[in-house]
## 1
Amino acid sequence: MIKDKDDVLILAIESSCDETSSAVVKNGRYVLSNVISSQIDLHKLYGGVVPEIASRKHVENIDAVIKESLKEANVTFDDIDAIAVTYGPGLVGALLVGLSEAKALAYALNKPLIGVHHIEGHISANYIENKDFEPPYVSLVVSGGHSHLVYVEDYGKYEIMGRTRDDAVGEAYDKVARVLGMGYPGGPKIDKIAKMGNPDAIQFPRVFLEEDSYDFSFSGLKSAVLNYINKEKMMGNTVVPEDVSASFQKAVVEVLVAKTIKASKEKGVSKVALAGGVASNTALREALSKACEENGLYFSVPSPVLCTDNAGMIGSAGYYEYIKGIRDGLDLNAIPSLKLGDRG
Ligand code: KG4
Ligand code: ZN
């Protein structure tokens, strides 16, 4: 790889949940490599992520994943300007594997260390996807562990407008999928079979909470779906998984889209960005894209591979911290419940 003197190359590491990933990112926008080693097949056997197994697998995989990311990018450690790593939120044992590795590399290679917030990474995937995309904008972040409506005023400057009060969106998808007898992770499976169902077959509740609130609540909807399934089974009726999935999904998407558009109007932004694992959902992508178009808003969404956990997005977020002069010490610790925007 030919590196110009102004180019900044970040080696990024992500291990907050069940993906071990390493990437080399140029100038925050160009992904030279993004190696993702997924443990899903292993956790599937238990119906969800088993933290102890996740940590152990990260330890086994991380060296090879980093090596591969350098090789694919055609660079050596000498070419790297800084090491960026997810330090929260996430599973503490899993986070510690990536963080320890990043610290060891930063120390041994004498390179700056930059801690990155996982959600900041998800949002930054939009900078990789759309090279001209810049703040200010409103971002809807929906993943397995988080649901946030965030006003991104500038790089690294976040205001959380709303968050889930109970289940995250992905969690609700996974739980409904489990009751329908589909394995983990259920989100992609519901997405798929919902396409064959009738979204108006069952009227599930739309939970908007208070008039002026941007918070979400999905546990009521999840319970409504479970009650419906149990009731139908008890009455000897056939439950049609396609219809349940499509109707559940419509209830989720309607609320997410309405709140995102309202938040964008309140902030007076002209752009909206979708992010997080659930951003892969076809119905959500389509509905938010359409609503943005109707409201004159530019809509950005990363390709599915950049929506799931990956180090490329961490390299992008890390770059914007790097150019601001943010550096972390070797005492940086993993923070499982790290808040977005703590750095200010
Ligand atoms: O962001 P992510 O990879 O991990 C976390 O940081 O949580 O998100 C994983 C979540 C899982 O709950 C998974 O079921 C959900 O994203 N998901 C989907 C889709 N693809 C992944 N949910 C709905 N539709 C999809 N296509
Ligand atoms: Zn994630």
## 2
Amino acid sequence: MWFQSEGINGINVGNITNKNAYLEKIEIKTYKLIQRSYRYMSDRVYIFDTTLRDGEQVPGCRLNTQEKVEVAKKLEGLGVDIIEAGFPVSSPGDFTSVVEISKAVTWPTVCALTRAVESDIKIAAEALRFAKRPRIHTGIGTSPSHIKYKFNSTPEEILERAISCVKYAKKFVEDVQFYAEDAGRTDNEYLARVVEAVIKAGATVVNIPDTTGYCLPTEFGEKIKYLMEHVDGIHKVTIATHCHNDLGMATANTLSGLMNGARQAEVTINGIGERAGNTSLEEVAMILKSHAELNLDTNINTKKIASVSRMVSSMMNMPVQPNKAIVGRNAFAHSSGIHQDGVLKNRESYEIIDPKDVGIDENAIVLTARSGRAALKHRLESLGVHMEKEALDKCYEEFLKLADKKREVVDEDVLMLAGEHRSARNRIKLDYLQVSSGVGIRPVASVGLDIAGEKFEACASGNGPVDAAIRAIKKIISRQMLIKDFLIQAFDKGSNDVGKVHMTVECDGVNHNGFAANSDIIAASAEAFLDAVNKAVVNNA
Ligand code: KIV
Ligand code: ZN
């Protein structure tokens, strides 16, 4: 809503949601009164998405440039204001991704991260050369431990470096964002000096990260309030929050920051990010939408949240925890009898959000063996997957095979089929797998692999059927490969269900995530293992 319709300062304006009509109706003539009325309007909160930078820093979640461009376009469609596309100096892959994302998106600002180092800034500016709205995000640690141990420096030297990096970045772009790393543990008085100095040096946005996720919501809110009240020139710039979730308070801290004057929230899809992750985009967007009394609005088209969440989860092979707020599988599932009864009588008894508002349509057409290609295409698109005709034809063939085995094909099945389409690009494919196992015998597996068109075979025994299959694969691919994480989940219920497997495999010291789904869970496990190994092969190519 543009402003509250109950009226301004006691003047009843009826049901008007258009600014001009409103001004005409009550004939506000003086500038002073208009200014006063603005206090009742919603303020805009800018959504800065760092899924492709801070989110992608998670071991095993790396995307290639093409995948990053796909995600960036989805973020643009979702209504994100700023996309942090990467850290160009960190790798050639990050540099190229920033270049390609800059070309691919139209209206969001594209941002590139740097340290307070001139060569970083120069390279970031080069990577941003095609961006319609480029932003350089530069900064330095300001907490006592960063100053002393990370930089072996002094507060005064750090202040100088902060000023210099902003001034240097300003030579390349107008829009310069400064971050005070570990601001959460930085003394407020010193932080205010740094913020004031970088504003004078030309920063347009100042980011106050709670890098370690340590702050309490009241403490973080007070920090922002302190800056708003003590920094000269702060009202000329945007203050940003960037909260990590180490103590589970990232969203609460972000909200507290916004309620005290910050107007940019730095977030990731599904809250992914290093350690316990970052603030979730979907949580911030839905809190602000649900609590109109905060008078804070975003540009997020919340109906697209579910599909973007699923796309990021499947591309990064990062399962979303079932009870995750807004996007978890159980977020709108009512299993207890009392709750089901209440929801059936009136949804609002137990639900504060209509699932349709986040893009979950429970009445969507059910996909079965009689569904056509168009229905499958429509469902894929609503889940955030676009396929050209040839890929769609292949996917439809697989869909019909699955629909023959299952009564009903659910969204997860469709995403699994789309994943198979992605894994079709893998260089190493499972040609065949035969396993004999049972009670009282040691399981044995024979495996056939197709590696870039060449066929290989091996046999092995193991503690269980999955162990035997993986051992056989390891006989063909002789690299250091260690399974670090292994999760098998059923999509649905019933013994005819498809099992999905997420696996993290350490290959030559680096973690890679793999995913596969199959009605045979041993095959799904072998395929997930190979999916991870394929990523290692691509990264080393
Ligand atoms: O958590 C953090 O402090 C960051 C900065 C680099 C912005 O990610
Ligand atoms: Zn961070």
